[in-house]
Amino acid sequence: WVCFGDAEDIMEELVDDLRMGRKGKHYQGGNKTDMKRVRAPRYHLVRRINEYISMAIQFSRGCPFRCEFCDIIEIYGRVPRTKTPGQIFAELGELQALGFRGYVFLVDDNFIGNKKNAKSLLKELAVWNRENGYPFRFYTEASINLADDAELVEAMARANFFFVFIGIETPDPKLLKTTLKLQNLSGNPLEKLRKIREYGIHITAGFIVGFDGEERGVFEAQSSFIRASGIGVAMLGLLVAIPHTQLSRRLKKEGRLLNRIWDGQQTTDGINFIPKGEVTKREYLERYSNLVKEVFEPKAYFERILPALLTLRYRAPLRALMEVWRINLTTLPRLLYHLGVKSKATRSYFWKVFLRVAWQNPAAMEAFVWDCFYFHHLSQHSDYIEREISRYLAAPSPEDVLDEAVGLSTGLEPAIGLQPGPDLVA
Fold first, then answer.
1. What is the pLDDT of residues 95-149, one digit of tens each?
2. Alpha carbon of 4 to those of 257, 289, 340: distances in Å?
3. Is 310 a residue whose pLDDT tops 90?
4. DSSP 317-375
5. What integer best gives the mean pLDDT of the chain?
6. DSSP-assigned beta bridge partners for residue 105
């Protein structure tokens, strides 16, 4: 069973087919569902709800931008559709009634896709929080042009938003133009990150290597930018031509899309095409593995997050801050033990940052806890990436193309290796 697009109009048919065992069907839900008519999630079906650190709520679908590699605009469209504030408060009210306290993830792929409606929600959410005793802290995903709208960032801070995930992808303007991520082109990205932090919004971000036209220095450029950005949770991925995207259609037309099934992982199974530029797929895999290892090395990680944590300015009310400490009361002691006592590799770096933050900017301790929480897992994940990529390169798929790259000035003639045969490309 394959479902594409909104679920509301196809769910009943899908459930009927599942019950009857009718397999091999595709369902097209479209992207025009009226969000004001979407049913609320049945949160009461979640057992032991407070064993989860966060719950999920959706406010909007769709994104106005046209990034070439993104499937969100293909699935949900480029006209952002939103629920009403009343719908959101009904869902939050159910979570509160069930006894959940903690973090709520607004899972929108771009929360500020419809800025007008986002601002309306945030204004009312600030009031709802105050009237209900600040039971939740919020986080979401947004484009970096968030920093260009001071009213919007301040509204997020007042509505008790804790952090935002931003798709930075690459600091190179030439590559941003190539992939049509034009919303990232204006202004200095480091300055934009600083502006967001001034409102007490912590930042995590996504980065990608594999864009057409990349030179061999791309790995050093990414490493340098991540270090300067102060972003601890820098999610590094290999570019993937996801099915049904502009990128996959273009690469197929150019004869560069590899006829391999992608397993859904951007960290160990990316670059499902013949690259265009100076770097072959083999080099991408090897150097990407090294880059991830470098980014999540303890010394590098803790040294880069400290300046950002010291500049974070918490603007939510004191009562909300007290709730934050209550929520994190059980997490902090675990981190103190695992990273500050048990792990010899992190011990000295952990305590250096912990003591500086506690002394100079204690309101940023929540962000430090989250950075440590992610580090505990991402450092292990970097070992996994290194292990899996090494294993793959030792015995690659016979259908893969590891040692060819298309030259930038000669069309489809490979810069390295032989002309790809029709059996190797889709």
1. 999 999 889 999 999 999 999 999 999 999 999 999 999 999 999 999 999 999 9
2. 22, 32, 46
3. yes
4. -HHHHHHHHHHTTTHHHHHHHIIIII-TTTHHHHHHHHHHHHHH-GGGHHHHHHHHHHH
5. 91
6. 56, 139
Contact yes or no for 425/274 (Cβ under 8 A)? yes
Higher pLDDT, 330 or 279: 279
What confidence score (pLDDT) does residue 423 get? 32
Backbone Cα Rg of the chain: 23
Contact call for residues 82 and 27 (beta carbons, < 8 A) = no
| DSSP state at residue 257 | B
Q: E strands of 98-216, at which residues?
A: 102-106, 136-142, 161-169, 202-209
- Rounded to an integer, the average pLDDT of 213-222 is 96
For residue 230, give both structure tokens: 């102060």
Contact 289, 385 (CB under 8 A): yes
Q: What is the DSSP string of 64-87?
A: S---TT-SHHHHT-SS-EE--HHH
Which candidate, 394, 413, 393, 396, places its Cα nearest to that of 405?
Answer: 413
Check residue 86 and give its pLDDT. 97
Work out the average pLDDT over 366-394: 94
* Close Cβ partners of 346 (under 8 Å, ≥ 6 residues apart): 298, 302, 339, 340, 375
Distance of CA 399 to the CA centre of its chain: 30
CA distance 418 to 411: 14
Q: Is residue 304 classed as helix, strand or coil in its secondary structure?
A: helix
Res. 83: pLDDT tops 90:
yes
- Mean pLDDT on 340-358: 95
CA 335-337-342 angle, to 5 degrees, is 120
**Residue 346 to residue 348: CA distance in whole angstroms:** 6
The residue count for the chain: 426
* Residue from 313, 298, 305 nearest 378 by CA: 298
With a CB cutoff of 8 Å and minimum separation 6, the contacts of 177 are 185
Predicted TM-score of the model (pTM): 0.92
